[in-house]
Amino acid sequence: MTPLSALFPTKPFCLSIEIFPPKSPAGDESLWSNLARLTRFHPAFISCTYGAGGSTRTRTVELCREIQSRFQIPATAHFTCVGSRADELSEWLDYAHSEGLRNLMALRGDPPRGETSFKQVEGGLGYASELVALIRSKLPEVGIGVAGYPEKHPEAPDADSDLRHLKSKIDAGADAVFTQLFFDNDSFQRFVDRARRLGIQTPIVPGIMPITEFSRIKRITEMCGASFPSALAARLEAAQDDADAQLAIGVEFAIEQCRSLMDAGVPGIHFYALNKSTACEQILDALGLATSDA
Fold it and tell me: 3-state class of 5 per DSSP?
């Protein structure tokens, strides 16, 4: 399967879809059904998250292996520092590689459930840049993606220090940056411009989460620190008792947001699909990607 390092130089636009490990057999069935519908848009890869505290570390690899087998599409496994010593992280890398994974998303990771802050375990790693360096030293041929924050990481003291931390991940060997969700394209472009001035030349891919439910997106933006347009919030709040109307508003906004990003020449779009296909299908159909070779 093609590593990230080889995808972006050969494709003018790389669509990617992010999913998470379901918690039940019914969830599994729904995931495979939704992914089957999304594969007609020819994603360059499908990524699978790694639960808080590494709670799905084996499950993530199993799902990525199944994605590659079912759809013949590269899978990218999320990989975090949380709760593991360096030797345990190395063991996981050996396991993932033996199962055919050639792409990883290297993240520091969120605290386990019930904890409010990241805690580095004894003998473990404390930064995503250290994780990138570990991966690159053990598996020099794999593709490595990392996270970027157009409106800075919630824990960062300021935008400049956050950007310097991103550069440390690139300097350690990351191949591409995939951003946290955002709703203001100007903030994304300013982020890219600042990154380029700092010397970051790797592809920076915008992360888009289609709005399907106002209450959910409010929780998510509050957690990650993303700003939310007041006019859009007002429209969604007025329709909060009508699920179909909320979906329609969210899809309409995402179509225009993505069109603007594509017109600006982004190298791809990373969709946070939340294991559902309806909104993504409508957006991607409107963007004309169903028959694209992207």
Answer: helix
Question: Where in the sequence numbering do the catalytic residues fall?
Answer: 18
In a domain, 269, yes or no: yes
Q: CATH no. for residue 233?
A: 3.20.20.220
Torsion of CA 160, 197, 173, 187, to 10 degrees: 60
This prediction has a pTM of 0.93
Helices 243-263 & 230-238 angle (0-180, nearest 10): 160
Distances from the Cα of 266 to the Cαs of 74, 98, 230, 249, 253, in angstroms? 21, 33, 25, 24, 18
Other CB atoms within a 10 A radius of the CB of residue 116 amount to 5
Is 293 part of a structural domain of the chain?
no
Residue range of the domain that includes 229: 4-286
The token duo for 291 is 């028959």
pLDDT digits (tens, 9 = 90+) for 79-117: 998 878 899 999 999 999 999 999 999 998 876 666 666
Assigned domain for 292 exists = no
Structural domains of the chain, count: 1
